[in-house]
Amino acid sequence: MVACLKSTDIETLTMAAPTVVQGNPDHPGVKNLLLSPVVDGDFIPDQPGNLLHNAADIDYLAGVNNMDGHLFTAQDIPSLGNKNQETSVEDVKRLLAAYTKEKGQAGLEVAFAEYSSHWGSTPSQDTIKKTAVDIGTDYIFLVPIQTAIYLHAANAM
């Protein structure tokens, strides 16, 4: 597989990647990425979380930027990319419900209380939109980075 990737020019490889799948708040597009790592038992022998013991003695830098999830989240809630269109609180809740589905209703309620704790009684559209992007960024980027850091620390010598 590595030889194949090395022999393919970057333009061909880039053009082979599908665009971000249009999603909606109930079914975020990021959950349908077609070109993502697959545990095949060979090139990727196991789930990444199970492999961190192999790199516990290697220092690395990990991080995430504010708004990294905008590209994906705006595919799920198109109004995020349009300053003239309102984003409903219900759309934000639906997106959060899709991301916290495994935690059930209680997980959704705790998460929404946390994300909306700074809103006050009448949140502005900027606040609602930024919260939706924060939710997407955290789910797609921040949580996996934090998980990797915790697993790395747990396996460090």
Automatic annotation (TrEMBL):
Similarity-based family: Belongs to the type-B carboxylesterase/lipase family.
UniProt xrefs under Gene3D superfamilies: alpha/beta hydrolase
Start and end residues of each Carboxylesterase type B domain: 1-154
Protein name: Bile salt-activated lipase
